[in-house]
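Quick one: structure for this chain?
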Amino acid sequence: MLPLLLIALSLSLVQADKLILSQIVFRHGARGSMERPTTKEAEEHFFRGTGQLTDEGIEQAYNLGKELRLRTQDLIDMRMIPNQFEFESSPSDRCIQTAQAVGMGLFNNTKSGLSRVVPVHSIPVKDNWFLFPNFCDSMTRELGEELGMAGEYNYYQVLKYKFEKLCKVSRYWEDPSHCRKIEAYTFENDAKLAVPDWLDEDAQNEGKKLRSEALHYISGSGKYKNSMYIQQRIGLLLDKILNRINDTAEAYASGNNYKKLYAYSTHDIMIMPLADAIGLNIFYDELPTFVGALLIELWEIDEEFKVKFFYRRDSGSFLPITRNVGICGNQEICNISDVVDCCSDYRHPEPWKLCGTSGFDSSSRGISVILALCIAVIGCLY
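Got it. Here's what it folds into:
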C-alpha cells in the first residue's frame, strides 16, 4: 500500500503544463471586392458594397472565435470578463466587425441567448501605425525609382504601376480590362457566380499569384524582403506582441494580474511581413486567407516559459507551426528568450520616425485618401 501512496504523492507534485497567454493576429473575413461588381448578379450578391464584410465573412469570423474558444476555455472566463482580454483592430469597418464576430464565437451567449459583444479598441487611420498599413514618403520615392518612374507620384500611382507591369507579362491578365477587374473576378468566382469562360482554374491561380506578388512588393516581404519596409509596416505590432509576452511572463512569475488574451484584427498586408519577420515563410507566393490567423501562446512547461505558434486558414483547426518559425531554430517548442529577444531588424516602437521626421510625414497623414483610390483600382491591399 505504501508504494501506491508514494506514487500518488509524486504524481500530485508534478505540475501540469499551463497556458498563460494567447495572442492572435487575424485577417478580416470575406468581403466584397474593392472594384465594382462585373455583373448584376454579383452586385446583388455583394449588396453591402465594395470592401464590406459579407455574410460569409461574418460566419468565418464567428467560427474562428469558436476555434479560439477551444484553445482558451481554460485560460479566460467564457462569461466575458473585459479585464481578462483586449480586442484591438484596424479602424477599417470590416476589421472591427470581424473582431466583434470573433468575440461572439469565443464567449458564451447571455442567459436570454443573445451573443455577447466584445469591446473593440481602435484609433484613427492617420495615427494608426499599429494595425493599419501606413506608408512614408521615403518608401514611396524608393519604390518609384526602382520601377523607373519619373516626376511626382504618390503611393497609389506606384502601386498601380507595379501591378500593371505584372499583368503585362502574365498569360491571362495582359489585357488591361482584365487586369483592372482581377479582384472582382476572383471574388465572384469564389462566390460561385457567373464569370467569363476564359477565367478557368489556371487563370484564377495566376491572378492570385499576381495579387500576392504585388502585395509582397508594397509590404517589403516575400522575394522583395526589406527590413526597413517591414519595420515601417509592422514594427509596432511586432514590438507589442513580443513585449506582451515578456511582460506577461514577469507578471505571472511575480503573482501579479495580467491580461490573458490579446486579439488583433488587421489586413493581409500586415500579416505577410509579420510572418516574414519571425522567419515564417508560409505566404511566400500566396495571400493569407480571409480570417487566416496566427496564434502565439505563452506556456509554463516544467517551470520554464515556452512559446508555441499555430496557424489556421479560413476553416478547420489551429495547426502547430513552431518548427516552421525561423526564430525558434527548428524546435517543437520555442524558448521564450528566442522570441522576446528576436527581430531587432524588424520591430520598432515608433515606426513613423523611420519616415525621417519626429512624427508623421505628409504621405502618412494623407494615406487614407490615397489608399481609398488605390484599392479601388487594384484591390490588393486588404
